[in-house]
């Protein structure tokens, strides 16, 4: 499938997701999970710390670290704090107003929705067949 086709499907998906309050809430929940896991991964990369090393530093199993950083498992704030502490870092948090219009515009310019696979599982938009769904997930 061509990149333009995937971008169009992603835009359609995001537009449908943003069309009701539950979809919007889900999007922003997944966005927060994505941002936090990306921040932790970025610190690991900057400090050249592997999952195995973070596991040792934080006192949790490597498989637990892998699950937490996949974004599929709901991370408690205490877990986030513990992982960042083990990385000698902390999270800086800023609340900003919701701007749904810019999200829709960004999607059109090839920006991907956070955790698209998870949101697609939770909102079953049947017009995207399984093959296209796998391609979208792989592209994201």
Descriptive overview:
The protein has 140 residues and is mainly alpha-helical. The chain has one domain (3-139): 434 Repressor (Amino-terminal Domain), CATH 1.10.260.40. It has 8 helices and no strands. It has helices at 3-17, 21-46, 51-58, 62-70, 77-86, 100-108, 116-122, 130-139. Helix 1 runs antiparallel to helix 6. The radius of gyration is 17 Å and the shape is elongated. It starts with a helix and ends with a helix. The relative contact order is 0.19.
Please identify the top-level CATH class: Mainly Alpha
Helix fraction by DSSP (H/I, runs of at least 4): 55-70%
Low-confidence stretches: 108-115, 121-127
Number of strands: 0
CATH topology: 434 Repressor (Amino-terminal Domain)
CA radius of gyration is 17 Å
- Gross morphology is elongated
Number of helices: 8
The helix/strand class is mainly alpha
CATH level 4 superfamily: lambda repressor-like DNA-binding domains
Number of domains: 1
Task: Supply the CATH architecture.
Answer: Orthogonal Bundle
Major β-sheet annotation: none
Mean pLDDT: 76
From N to C, what is the helix and strand string? HHHHHHHH
Distance between the termini: 14 Å
| Content of β-strand | under 5%
